Each structure stands twice: as structure tokens, then as C-alpha cells.
Amino acid sequence: MSSVIEAIHLGGVNCYLFAAGDGCILVDTGFMAKRPKLEKSLESLGCTPGKLKLIVLTHGDSDHTGNADFLRNKYGCKIVMHGSDLGMVERGDMGWNRKAKPDKYSVIFRLIGFLAKAAAKKAEFEKFKPDLIVDEGFDLSPYGLEAKIVHIPGHSKGSIGVLTEDGKLCCGDFAYNVPGFQFIDDRDDQRKSLDKVKRLKIETLYPGHGKPFPMKVLLKRS
Ligand SMILES: [Zn+2]
To answer: How far, CA to CA in Å, does 104 sit from each of 51, 109, 214?
Structure first.
């Protein structure tokens, strides 16, 4: 059976909503500032309170985790993430478990980093504890989605993807589809993750930034 996925675009950041049995599973949650738009989008897609079973966070950065705690309270669902990014959301520190200086980051990210630091002084990062710590192979089928978690560190130590049985990979910031976007915290991790992803049965990647793109584009790029 093919999986049903809807993209929710939140000002440069994508969240993805999967149909999961009689409910849904949300991958990532966008910035706090985009909360009203996210709430409206979820409602228009039929994801009303009681329907949302899980929120899977691809990693701990605030552009992906900004509404997780809010949605958990509103929908009564669980938040799932990898333990290696835990301190990022528990402490509100995106540098937690990362190198002092990332191995590779493009000019645009240096600028974003600078702006984020300035913004962080104004707005408090909403800290929270996830409900479920997951790792490679965690099975989402008990929640109604034929999919597994893949651990793909590189952007951060706890970066994960959601891989459906029919070859859709929600890959967070493992791969972008925006010209000039690049942020690799650890080049060795990234290379290993890339090797792993190449061996998996993937048709389409659904990135955290930019439009979905076919696996063959990733293979050509690397
Ligand atoms: Zn991001």
C-alpha cells in the first residue's frame, strides 16, 4: 500500500504529515513563529485533536522543533526523537553535542546563525523533554504507518529520517534542496550516512528545506 504524505510549508521550513491508520503522524513542527499557520494547515488536512498520534523530530534544531511541545499539549500525542540531540531541546542549545565549528557550512548558514543568535536573545527557546527516544530501525507500523526510523547523523549527531516501505524518506537536514544551503557538523558522520542511504530502497527524498526530489538526484550530487 502506498503511503499518503502532505507537505506543510512554513516559511522556508517543511513539515510532513502522513496518514497513519485512522490518524496521522507529523514529521517536524517548524519555528514557533509559524504556529498559527501550522495549526490551520493541520486542521485543513483533517488532523484534528485526537487524530495526531506521533510527532517525529528529525533533529533538535529550533526550526524543526519549535511547536512540538505546544502540539503535544494540544493533541495529547507523543514526541519522538533520537537521544543524541536530546540536550538541544532540553537545554534550548543548538550547539549541544555539536562541534565548536561545523565541518562545512555555507555563507547563508553563517548569516542565519548570526541572525538566530540575535533572535534567540529576544525569544526564549521552548524547552521540552521528548516522550520516546528512538534509534535505527524503530518501527512506526504499530502507529499505523509502514515506516522505519533511519539514523543519519552528519547535520547533528541525533539526525534521523522516516523511511516508508514504499520508498519515501523524510530526511530533515541530511540533504537540502535549496541552492547554497549546506550545514554539515561532522563530515565523517555525513559520509557514513550517505553510504547507508545509498543502500536503502528510496524513491523520493522529502527534505526539511526545499522541494521533494528523486533519489537519483542525490546519487548524482554525491
Ligand atoms: Zn533546518
So the answer is: 40, 10, 24
Ligand 1 is a single-atom ion; what residues have CB below 5 A from it? 63, 173, 208
- Ligand 1 mean position, distance from CA 106 (Å): 13
Distance 168 CA to ligand 1 centre (A): 19
Which stretches within the chain are classed as H helix? Answer: 35-44, 62-65, 68-75, 86-91, 107-122, 187-199, 215-221
Whether pLDDT at 94 is above 60: yes
Task: Please report, for the chain, the start and end positions of each structural domain, with discontinuous segments joined by +.
Answer: 5-221
Whether the CB-CB separation of 114 and 124 falls below 8 Å is answered with: no
- Give the predicted TM-score (pTM) of the model: 0.94
Domain spanning 5-221: CATH 3.30.559.10: no
Query: Could you report the per-residue pLDDT of 131-179, keeping only the tens digit for each?
Result: 999 999 999 999 999 999 999 999 999 999 999 999 999 999 999 999 8
Decide: helix, strand or coil at residue 214. strand
